[in-house]
Queue: 3 jobs
Job 1
Amino acid sequence: MRFTVLTLFPEMVLQGCSHGVVGQAVHDGKIRVETLNPRDWTTDVHHTVDDRPFGGGDGMVMLPGPLESAVAKAVSGCSVPPRKIYLSARGRPFTDQLARELVASPEVILLCGRYGGVDQRLLEAEEFEEVSIGDYVLSGGELAALVLIDAVGRHVPGVLGNALSAENESFAVGLLEHPQFTRPRQWRDLEVPEILLGGNHAKIRQWRHHLAILITAQTRPELLANLSVREVREALARLDQLAESVRRATGLKDVEGIRLRLERRLEMAVSP
Ligand code: SAH
């Protein structure tokens, strides 16, 4: 798939896509990342891309003209109708679900704002969807575009070495990921939970699933809505069995809070 990024800072985007898993995927041609700079379509000597807002107020606004030309250039290079996204604090929240949806689009155009934002008429006329990476304000859309490219890129077939790895990660099953451990078995006064050393893969899978539920209950209880009553009951039972040392090593600090939230989830399930 191809991302065409409209940005005043192309190096920032290209540099950000040149490392790790995404960098390798770009190198292998599994993902293409190209940039277009609206400044290249300015006609005045100062190469102006922004101006003061009508109605007054702080911050400059990006002119529609240079962006219009950059969008036209981006669209003309697309073999299929592109998905057009404006990275924006006002947008709908970016989620793993949207990342998976975007993988189905071979062409994605990403518009990065700067200053106070972009003239709204450009966004309307070119039918941009607005997507936010979180409830805070960045000084530009480039970091947001990189976040989106990275999270979407991981779902492109063949980008993650082991196709299964994305399926076990946080959010893949609507839960946060279970805790992970590597060598040494004993580090400081913390031990790797015994069950992970035993080699019984069915048991390990179950344990990890229960721990994922407990971790989710601790940090993101609203995600528990995705679970069946049986899973919640099993996780509660597991919580009671966990030794103090395992709780410490796995980061389950708020045991009473976890119990309360799981019990509340069960009550919700039985009440009409
Ligand atoms: N005045 C705007 C913020 C402009 S910040 C507002 O109040 O909403 C400059 C640019 O940074 C924006 O045009 C947008 O492209 C990008 N940006 C800022 N916060 C973002 C966020 N949470 N998610 C995605 N893009 C963001």
Note: The radius of gyration is 23 Å.
Job 2
Amino acid sequence: MTNFQDLVIAYRILAEHGIIDAYGHISVRSPTNPERFWMARSIAPELVTEADMMEFGMDSEPIDAKGFNPVIERYIHGEVYKSRPEVMAVVHNHSPSVIPFCCTNTTLQPIFHMSAFIGLGVPNWEIRDAQEDSDMLVRNAYLGESLAKKLDGHPAALMRGHGAVVVGESLAVAVGRSVYLEQNARMQFQAEMLAGDDGEITFMSDKEVAANVVWQEYGRFWNLVRNKMIKKLDAEKLA
Ligand code: MN
């Protein structure tokens, strides 16, 4: 099987940026079989190694459980891969600055060019529309499908009272979008404080968004954080 190094690196980068803590996960579609995806077993992201990786089918069930506990919310990933053939990586997080935007009427908007993708729309999924009085977790394919439907063709969706799902056509894009979604949420909140009573904030226009998202692959960002993480992981191995 292809090695899992970049997926481990993606877990560690998201943890280092505070996008995922003890919870949260990232998966990647198998490069050799588009009907399968890879994700770590149920373990804190900062502890993930290549040995923790599991392979899942489109039903979000493990191909070979290897005696591991799979992540409960794996259905988020499976249902998104099923409905979005171009998506190669999926992040589920509880990104702290993003949460307030999923339980108020303030809509996330693109405040700077690095998060232009927000201008493509970030819908907010209300789990109560699918199930009343839930424990908020996406515990089955039914809830996963409901979330994937709300996500539709968008780059990300919020999950009311919970977090977000962020997708990309590569690991770099899914990780980059997750990091810049968090930054945008923080900066939008700051701008709202600064704007004060007049409340005026100039967000990116639809045309600026369209001109930006065509090139936004987060390649330089990924190259930087990946290289730093490889050095850190090497140092851990030597210690
Ligand atoms: Mn969750």
Note: The longest helix spans residues 171-195.
Job 3
Amino acid sequence: MADVKRIAITGAAGQIGYSLLPRLAAGAVFGPETPVILQCLEIPPALGALGGVAMELMDCAFDLLEDIVISDDPRTAFAGADLALLVGSKPRGKGMERGDLIRENGPIFTGQGNALSEVAHPQCRVVVVGNPCNTNCLIALNNAPNLDPKNFSAMTRLDHNRALAQLAEKAGRHSSEVRNVTIWGNHSNTQYPDFHYATIDGKPATEVIADEAWLRDPFIKTVQERGKAIIEARGLSSAMSAANAAIAHSRLLFQGTPEGEWTSMAVVSDGSYGVPEGLVSSFPVRCPGDGSWEIVQDLSFNEWGKERFEITVNELIGERDMVKDLLPG
Ligand code: NAX
């Protein structure tokens, strides 16, 4: 058996938490040889519900689950954490603009960034899921002076998986045969799902799906608007698929991307592709498997793709400007 890993999950009594916790407890991120302690954070009104979730986790009698901590204090939940999944945030209310949501949720991530910096394991990897996830991640990493900004990332793997699934369906193939799509920019409906380097069974997706009009319009729109379509159908936002993507994102960080493949992940820009340094943007990313990542270099855009890329990066610049007061320094 390997050393126990501490996994902190915020918003653990929410929808995504309910799908996420059993998979974490079953070893989906660190593998079947690594015991885990789940350290769950909630706001006080949700602690009762979280207690119920903890009872269910106990009743699963997972082999790898060593302990469950529940708390409304980030310093308790993040203590010694090797991985922190920041899922908890307020949902967008009726009539709320995206800007209102950013201002509403931003302060959660200053406090959590601070707490992580003080009490998490110095090598803790922080994965932000709660929306607006790119900008929440930007806030958290800027408020965590003891942690390397490269230890933070925000989740665009759900968008990536949605893109794989759409391409597979159109081509009449299995999603596992589709590789190397890229989500660029923001986890919002300005994101640019890029199919130009994608392959299906090793062949360029643009050859297998010789329908540029479909790729440029219905494909992109379906991926961008998938979250909305699920809310309309289910009356609730994506939760099972979001939890699944959070697991995939974390597993790739710790177990690595397969040879020749990349994933999509929002990480702090080093200026690659002209994305302003310090902005948290989704890029094609390779992970060696030690918790680090590197941005895949030397992909190019045609004029049409560049336009899409710039729209989403400009949205991120606008979001950063809205939260300037939450970014110290
Ligand atoms: P829920 O509303 O079901 O759960 C959120 C939970 O967070 C609640 O239990 C709430 O009490 C808790 N919470 C609120 N403030 C908190 C705080 N300061 N500290 C700790 N916990 C806090 O939402 P759910 O469906 O689970 O979604 C969670 C977040 O994921 C939302 O922000 C949602 O927008 C975002 N998503 C992100 C996705 C992505 O691809 N990055 C996709 C799915 C999802 O939309």
Note: The longest helix spans residues 98-119.
